[in-house]
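Feature request, filed as a ticket because there's no other form

It would be nice if the structure record came with a short human-readable summary line next to the C-alpha coordinates. Right now we just get the raw output. Example of a typical job, pasted below so the devs can see what we mean:
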Amino acid sequence: MKNEVEEKTGRLVEMLGREGLGGVLLNAQHNFAWLTGGASNGIDLSRENGVAFLLVTAGGKRYLLANNIEMPRMLAEEIAADEFEPVEYSWQDEKASGDFVTRKALSLLASGGELATDIAIDGRTRAIEGLVAKCRYSLTAAEVERFRQLGKDAGIAMRAVIDKVVPGETEIEIAAKLWAELAAGGITSVVTLVAADERIANFRHPIPTDNRWNKTLMIVSCSKRDGLISSCTRIVCLGNVPEELQRRTEATAFVNASLWNATRPGVSGAELYKIAADAYSKKGFADEINKHHQGRAGGYRTREWVAHPKSGEVVQQNQAFAWNPSITGTKIEETVILTDTGIEVITTSPDFPSIKTEIDGQTYFSPGILSI
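Raw output as currently delivered:
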Protein backbone atom coordinates (compact mmCIF):
# COMPACT_ATOMS: atom_id res chain seq x y z
CA MET A 1 0.00 0.00 0.00
CA LYS A 2 2.88 2.38 0.74
CA ASN A 3 4.00 2.38 -2.90
CA GLU A 4 0.45 3.15 -4.04
CA VAL A 5 0.14 6.06 -1.62
CA GLU A 6 3.51 7.40 -2.75
CA GLU A 7 2.51 7.21 -6.42
CA LYS A 8 -0.72 9.10 -5.79
CA THR A 9 1.06 11.66 -3.62
CA GLY A 10 3.43 12.25 -6.52
CA ARG A 11 0.50 12.95 -8.84
CA LEU A 12 -0.92 15.49 -6.39
CA VAL A 13 2.46 17.16 -5.85
CA GLU A 14 2.92 17.51 -9.61
CA MET A 15 -0.54 19.06 -9.91
CA LEU A 16 0.11 21.44 -7.01
CA GLY A 17 3.34 22.54 -8.66
CA ARG A 18 1.60 23.29 -11.96
CA GLU A 19 -1.06 25.30 -10.16
CA GLY A 20 1.34 27.13 -7.84
CA LEU A 21 -0.45 25.84 -4.74
CA GLY A 22 1.02 25.16 -1.30
CA GLY A 23 -1.14 22.14 -0.54
CA VAL A 24 -4.50 20.43 -0.97
CA LEU A 25 -6.90 19.36 1.78
CA LEU A 26 -8.99 16.32 0.88
CA ASN A 27 -12.27 15.72 2.69
CA ALA A 28 -14.60 14.13 0.13
CA GLN A 29 -15.18 10.46 0.92
CA HIS A 30 -14.20 9.31 -2.58
CA ASN A 31 -10.88 11.19 -2.45
CA PHE A 32 -10.10 9.88 1.02
CA ALA A 33 -10.62 6.33 -0.27
CA TRP A 34 -8.54 7.02 -3.39
CA LEU A 35 -5.45 8.45 -1.71
CA THR A 36 -5.39 5.85 1.07
CA GLY A 37 -6.03 2.84 -1.15
CA GLY A 38 -9.50 2.09 0.18
CA ALA A 39 -9.78 3.57 3.68
CA SER A 40 -12.94 5.42 4.67
CA ASN A 41 -13.66 8.69 6.46
CA GLY A 42 -17.39 8.17 6.03
CA ILE A 43 -19.93 7.93 8.82
CA ASP A 44 -22.89 9.82 7.39
CA LEU A 45 -22.98 8.26 3.92
CA SER A 46 -25.64 10.70 2.72
CA ARG A 47 -22.98 13.41 2.61
CA GLU A 48 -19.98 13.89 0.34
CA ASN A 49 -17.89 15.21 3.25
CA GLY A 50 -16.15 12.81 5.61
CA VAL A 51 -15.19 13.14 9.26
CA ALA A 52 -11.41 13.30 8.71
CA PHE A 53 -9.13 15.19 6.34
CA LEU A 54 -5.97 14.41 4.41
CA LEU A 55 -3.47 17.17 3.69
CA VAL A 56 -0.81 16.85 1.01
CA THR A 57 1.68 19.72 0.77
CA ALA A 58 3.57 20.91 -2.28
CA GLY A 59 6.67 19.36 -0.73
CA GLY A 60 5.04 15.93 -0.50
CA LYS A 61 4.30 15.86 3.23
CA ARG A 62 1.12 14.00 4.21
CA TYR A 63 -1.07 14.62 7.24
CA LEU A 64 -4.23 13.10 8.72
CA LEU A 65 -6.38 15.75 10.43
CA ALA A 66 -9.19 14.58 12.72
CA ASN A 67 -10.83 15.48 16.00
CA ASN A 68 -10.36 13.50 19.19
CA ILE A 69 -13.55 11.50 18.55
CA GLU A 70 -12.38 10.13 15.21
CA MET A 71 -8.60 9.96 15.44
CA PRO A 72 -8.31 6.79 17.60
CA ARG A 73 -10.41 4.69 15.23
CA MET A 74 -8.76 6.21 12.16
CA LEU A 75 -5.32 5.13 13.38
CA ALA A 76 -6.54 1.74 14.63
CA GLU A 77 -8.62 0.73 11.61
CA GLU A 78 -8.11 3.02 8.62
CA ILE A 79 -4.79 4.90 8.40
CA ALA A 80 -1.18 4.06 9.25
CA ALA A 81 0.54 6.83 11.22
CA ASP A 82 3.77 6.25 9.28
CA GLU A 83 1.97 7.12 6.03
CA PHE A 84 -0.01 10.15 7.24
CA GLU A 85 1.24 12.19 10.20
CA PRO A 86 -1.65 12.52 12.70
CA VAL A 87 -2.82 16.01 13.69
CA GLU A 88 -5.50 15.78 16.38
CA TYR A 89 -7.68 18.54 17.81
CA SER A 90 -10.72 18.73 20.08
CA TRP A 91 -14.16 18.36 18.63
CA GLN A 92 -15.19 21.51 20.51
CA ASP A 93 -12.57 23.60 18.69
CA GLU A 94 -13.64 22.14 15.37
CA LYS A 95 -17.30 22.96 15.98
CA ALA A 96 -16.60 26.42 17.35
CA SER A 97 -15.31 27.79 14.05
CA GLY A 98 -16.27 26.97 10.49
CA ASP A 99 -12.73 27.59 9.26
CA PHE A 100 -10.87 25.85 12.11
CA VAL A 101 -9.64 22.92 10.01
CA THR A 102 -8.48 25.08 7.12
CA ARG A 103 -6.58 27.34 9.52
CA LYS A 104 -4.99 24.26 11.05
CA ALA A 105 -4.03 23.00 7.58
CA LEU A 106 -2.58 26.40 6.60
CA SER A 107 -0.33 26.29 9.66
CA LEU A 108 1.16 23.01 8.35
CA LEU A 109 2.24 24.45 5.00
CA ALA A 110 5.95 24.88 5.73
CA SER A 111 6.64 26.92 2.62
CA GLY A 112 3.40 28.86 2.83
CA GLY A 113 1.38 29.20 -0.33
CA GLU A 114 -2.30 28.94 -1.12
CA LEU A 115 -4.30 26.06 0.33
CA ALA A 116 -6.75 24.30 -1.96
CA THR A 117 -9.54 21.86 -1.08
CA ASP A 118 -11.26 19.15 -3.07
CA ILE A 119 -14.73 20.43 -2.20
CA ALA A 120 -15.75 23.83 -0.90
CA ILE A 121 -15.26 24.10 2.87
CA ASP A 122 -15.09 27.83 3.54
CA GLY A 123 -14.18 31.06 1.78
CA ARG A 124 -10.48 30.78 2.61
CA THR A 125 -9.66 28.09 0.06
CA ARG A 126 -9.91 27.32 -3.65
CA ALA A 127 -11.94 24.20 -4.53
CA ILE A 128 -10.11 22.06 -7.13
CA GLU A 129 -12.06 18.80 -7.31
CA GLY A 130 -11.72 18.81 -11.09
CA LEU A 131 -7.92 18.83 -10.85
CA VAL A 132 -7.88 16.14 -8.15
CA ALA A 133 -10.19 14.03 -10.31
CA LYS A 134 -7.65 13.99 -13.13
CA CYS A 135 -5.12 12.54 -10.68
CA ARG A 136 -7.55 9.68 -9.98
CA TYR A 137 -8.37 8.63 -13.55
CA SER A 138 -5.50 6.24 -14.31
CA LEU A 139 -5.61 3.28 -11.94
CA THR A 140 -2.48 2.05 -10.22
CA ALA A 141 -1.48 -1.61 -10.56
CA ALA A 142 -2.81 -2.30 -7.06
CA GLU A 143 -6.11 -0.61 -7.88
CA VAL A 144 -6.50 -2.66 -11.06
CA GLU A 145 -6.21 -5.84 -8.99
CA ARG A 146 -8.74 -4.63 -6.41
CA PHE A 147 -11.09 -3.51 -9.17
CA ARG A 148 -10.84 -6.87 -10.93
CA GLN A 149 -11.79 -8.68 -7.76
CA LEU A 150 -14.65 -6.28 -7.06
CA GLY A 151 -16.00 -6.70 -10.58
CA LYS A 152 -15.73 -10.47 -10.39
CA ASP A 153 -17.50 -10.61 -7.03
CA ALA A 154 -20.22 -8.19 -8.15
CA GLY A 155 -20.87 -10.17 -11.32
CA ILE A 156 -21.10 -13.41 -9.35
CA ALA A 157 -23.43 -11.80 -6.80
CA MET A 158 -25.70 -10.55 -9.56
CA ARG A 159 -25.94 -14.05 -11.02
CA ALA A 160 -26.61 -15.54 -7.58
CA VAL A 161 -29.49 -13.12 -7.02
CA ILE A 162 -31.07 -14.13 -10.30
CA ASP A 163 -31.15 -17.72 -9.04
CA LYS A 164 -32.94 -16.55 -5.88
CA VAL A 165 -35.62 -14.23 -7.24
CA VAL A 166 -39.14 -15.59 -7.63
CA PRO A 167 -41.84 -14.50 -10.08
CA GLY A 168 -44.44 -12.40 -8.29
CA GLU A 169 -41.93 -10.73 -5.98
CA THR A 170 -41.88 -6.96 -5.89
CA GLU A 171 -39.00 -4.93 -7.19
CA ILE A 172 -38.27 -3.87 -3.61
CA GLU A 173 -38.05 -7.49 -2.47
CA ILE A 174 -35.70 -8.28 -5.34
CA ALA A 175 -33.54 -5.25 -4.48
CA ALA A 176 -33.32 -6.44 -0.88
CA LYS A 177 -31.95 -9.79 -2.07
CA LEU A 178 -29.33 -7.97 -4.15
CA TRP A 179 -28.27 -5.80 -1.21
CA ALA A 180 -27.89 -8.87 1.01
CA GLU A 181 -25.94 -10.85 -1.60
CA LEU A 182 -23.50 -8.01 -2.17
CA ALA A 183 -23.18 -7.25 1.54
CA ALA A 184 -22.02 -10.82 2.16
CA GLY A 185 -18.95 -9.95 0.10
CA GLY A 186 -18.34 -6.60 1.79
CA ILE A 187 -19.92 -4.72 -1.11
CA THR A 188 -22.49 -1.91 -0.96
CA SER A 189 -24.86 -1.17 -3.83
CA VAL A 190 -24.73 2.63 -4.01
CA VAL A 191 -27.15 2.66 -6.96
CA THR A 192 -29.80 -0.04 -7.18
CA LEU A 193 -32.35 -0.10 -10.00
CA VAL A 194 -34.94 -2.82 -10.51
CA ALA A 195 -37.62 -2.81 -13.20
CA ALA A 196 -40.19 -5.48 -13.91
CA ASP A 197 -42.00 -5.79 -17.24
CA GLU A 198 -43.40 -2.48 -18.54
CA ARG A 199 -41.28 -0.34 -16.20
CA ILE A 200 -38.16 -1.37 -18.16
CA ALA A 201 -39.44 0.53 -21.18
CA ASN A 202 -41.10 3.33 -19.22
CA PHE A 203 -38.15 4.56 -17.16
CA ARG A 204 -34.39 4.70 -17.70
CA HIS A 205 -33.76 4.98 -13.94
CA PRO A 206 -36.33 2.64 -12.35
CA ILE A 207 -36.01 2.98 -8.59
CA PRO A 208 -37.45 -0.23 -7.03
CA THR A 209 -41.17 -0.10 -6.28
CA ASP A 210 -43.91 -2.51 -5.18
CA ASN A 211 -44.46 -3.43 -8.83
CA ARG A 212 -44.43 -7.24 -9.16
CA TRP A 213 -42.33 -9.21 -11.64
CA ASN A 214 -44.26 -11.40 -14.07
CA LYS A 215 -42.26 -11.84 -17.31
CA THR A 216 -39.12 -9.69 -17.78
CA LEU A 217 -36.82 -8.30 -15.11
CA MET A 218 -33.91 -5.84 -15.20
CA ILE A 219 -31.49 -5.47 -12.26
CA VAL A 220 -28.83 -2.76 -12.08
CA SER A 221 -26.16 -2.17 -9.45
CA CYS A 222 -23.30 0.24 -8.89
CA SER A 223 -21.33 -1.85 -6.43
CA LYS A 224 -18.79 -0.26 -4.06
CA ARG A 225 -15.92 -1.77 -2.07
CA ASP A 226 -12.71 -0.13 -0.86
CA GLY A 227 -13.99 3.06 -2.48
CA LEU A 228 -14.03 1.60 -6.00
CA ILE A 229 -17.35 1.31 -7.83
CA SER A 230 -18.22 -1.19 -10.58
CA SER A 231 -21.49 -1.18 -12.52
CA CYS A 232 -23.45 -3.84 -14.36
CA THR A 233 -26.96 -4.54 -15.66
CA ARG A 234 -28.65 -7.90 -16.15
CA ILE A 235 -31.97 -8.76 -17.82
CA VAL A 236 -33.81 -12.05 -17.36
CA CYS A 237 -36.98 -13.36 -18.94
CA LEU A 238 -39.37 -16.12 -17.91
CA GLY A 239 -39.61 -18.49 -20.84
CA ASN A 240 -38.57 -17.55 -24.35
CA VAL A 241 -37.17 -14.08 -24.98
CA PRO A 242 -39.61 -12.11 -27.19
CA GLU A 243 -38.28 -11.60 -30.70
CA GLU A 244 -38.50 -7.79 -30.56
CA LEU A 245 -36.70 -7.66 -27.21
CA GLN A 246 -33.92 -9.85 -28.61
CA ARG A 247 -33.62 -7.65 -31.71
CA ARG A 248 -33.34 -4.49 -29.64
CA THR A 249 -30.81 -6.07 -27.29
CA GLU A 250 -28.62 -7.21 -30.17
CA ALA A 251 -28.72 -3.66 -31.56
CA THR A 252 -27.75 -2.34 -28.14
CA ALA A 253 -24.88 -4.82 -28.05
CA PHE A 254 -23.63 -3.33 -31.31
CA VAL A 255 -23.56 0.13 -29.73
CA ASN A 256 -21.81 -1.29 -26.68
CA ALA A 257 -19.18 -3.07 -28.79
CA SER A 258 -18.66 0.10 -30.83
CA LEU A 259 -17.91 2.01 -27.64
CA TRP A 260 -15.57 -0.69 -26.34
CA ASN A 261 -13.75 -0.76 -29.67
CA ALA A 262 -13.27 3.03 -29.58
CA THR A 263 -12.18 3.29 -25.95
CA ARG A 264 -8.51 3.93 -26.57
CA PRO A 265 -6.01 6.34 -25.02
CA GLY A 266 -6.43 9.91 -26.26
CA VAL A 267 -9.97 9.48 -27.60
CA SER A 268 -12.26 12.25 -26.35
CA GLY A 269 -15.66 11.96 -24.75
CA ALA A 270 -17.13 13.88 -27.69
CA GLU A 271 -15.65 11.39 -30.16
CA LEU A 272 -17.07 8.47 -28.16
CA TYR A 273 -20.49 10.11 -28.13
CA LYS A 274 -20.44 10.43 -31.93
CA ILE A 275 -19.39 6.80 -32.30
CA ALA A 276 -22.34 5.75 -30.14
CA ALA A 277 -24.72 8.01 -32.11
CA ASP A 278 -23.53 6.52 -35.41
CA ALA A 279 -23.94 2.99 -34.05
CA TYR A 280 -27.54 3.65 -32.99
CA SER A 281 -28.25 5.08 -36.43
CA LYS A 282 -26.73 2.09 -38.24
CA LYS A 283 -29.12 -0.21 -36.36
CA GLY A 284 -32.18 1.94 -37.05
CA PHE A 285 -32.51 3.48 -33.59
CA ALA A 286 -31.02 6.94 -34.16
CA ASP A 287 -33.25 8.74 -31.63
CA GLU A 288 -32.40 6.44 -28.71
CA ILE A 289 -29.19 8.32 -27.90
CA ASN A 290 -31.37 11.28 -26.89
CA LYS A 291 -33.22 9.25 -24.27
CA HIS A 292 -30.31 8.44 -21.95
CA HIS A 293 -26.59 9.06 -21.52
CA GLN A 294 -24.26 6.35 -22.76
CA GLY A 295 -22.23 5.80 -19.61
CA ARG A 296 -19.00 7.08 -18.23
CA ALA A 297 -15.52 6.84 -16.94
CA GLY A 298 -15.50 5.24 -13.50
CA GLY A 299 -13.41 4.60 -10.45
CA TYR A 300 -14.14 6.15 -7.06
CA ARG A 301 -17.31 7.89 -8.22
CA THR A 302 -20.24 6.37 -10.06
CA ARG A 303 -19.45 8.86 -12.83
CA GLU A 304 -16.06 10.52 -13.23
CA TRP A 305 -17.17 11.97 -16.56
CA VAL A 306 -19.91 11.24 -19.09
CA ALA A 307 -19.50 11.14 -22.88
CA HIS A 308 -21.48 13.97 -24.48
CA PRO A 309 -21.22 16.12 -27.63
CA LYS A 310 -19.03 18.79 -26.00
CA SER A 311 -16.91 16.57 -23.73
CA GLY A 312 -13.22 17.44 -23.78
CA GLU A 313 -12.19 14.65 -21.41
CA VAL A 314 -9.91 12.03 -22.94
CA VAL A 315 -9.47 8.32 -22.30
CA GLN A 316 -6.38 7.34 -20.31
CA GLN A 317 -4.51 4.06 -20.02
CA ASN A 318 -5.61 1.94 -17.04
CA GLN A 319 -8.86 3.88 -16.75
CA ALA A 320 -12.18 2.21 -15.92
CA PHE A 321 -15.37 2.68 -17.92
CA ALA A 322 -18.97 1.54 -17.62
CA TRP A 323 -20.78 2.23 -20.87
CA ASN A 324 -24.53 1.65 -20.62
CA PRO A 325 -26.19 1.98 -24.04
CA SER A 326 -29.93 1.43 -24.03
CA ILE A 327 -32.76 1.07 -26.48
CA THR A 328 -36.25 1.45 -25.06
CA GLY A 329 -37.05 -1.78 -23.23
CA THR A 330 -33.48 -3.04 -22.91
CA LYS A 331 -29.99 -2.05 -21.78
CA ILE A 332 -26.42 -3.38 -21.67
CA GLU A 333 -23.84 -2.47 -19.05
CA GLU A 334 -20.53 -3.89 -17.91
CA THR A 335 -17.48 -2.36 -16.25
CA VAL A 336 -14.23 -2.55 -18.19
CA ILE A 337 -10.62 -1.45 -17.65
CA LEU A 338 -8.46 -0.23 -20.51
CA THR A 339 -5.26 -2.24 -20.08
CA ASP A 340 -2.13 -2.54 -22.22
CA THR A 341 -3.82 -5.34 -24.16
CA GLY A 342 -7.12 -3.53 -24.69
CA ILE A 343 -10.52 -3.67 -23.03
CA GLU A 344 -10.84 -6.08 -20.10
CA VAL A 345 -14.39 -6.81 -18.91
CA ILE A 346 -14.38 -7.29 -15.13
CA THR A 347 -18.07 -7.76 -14.23
CA THR A 348 -19.06 -10.84 -16.21
CA SER A 349 -21.56 -13.20 -14.58
CA PRO A 350 -21.14 -17.00 -14.67
CA ASP A 351 -23.42 -18.97 -16.97
CA PHE A 352 -24.94 -15.84 -18.48
CA PRO A 353 -25.66 -15.64 -22.22
CA SER A 354 -23.61 -13.27 -24.35
CA ILE A 355 -24.05 -11.51 -27.67
CA LYS A 356 -21.10 -11.70 -30.05
CA THR A 357 -20.29 -8.60 -32.10
CA GLU A 358 -17.39 -8.14 -34.53
CA ILE A 359 -16.05 -4.65 -35.25
CA ASP A 360 -12.86 -3.82 -37.15
CA GLY A 361 -11.76 -7.44 -36.91
CA GLN A 362 -12.20 -7.49 -33.12
CA THR A 363 -14.74 -9.71 -31.33
CA TYR A 364 -16.65 -8.44 -28.32
CA PHE A 365 -19.10 -10.25 -26.04
CA SER A 366 -21.87 -8.21 -24.40
CA PRO A 367 -24.32 -9.67 -21.85
CA GLY A 368 -27.50 -10.94 -23.43
CA ILE A 369 -30.83 -11.90 -21.85
CA LEU A 370 -31.10 -14.97 -19.64
CA SER A 371 -34.14 -17.15 -20.27
CA ILE A 372 -35.20 -18.99 -17.10
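Something like this underneath would help us a lot:
The mean pLDDT is 96.
The first strand starts at residue 23 and ends at 28.
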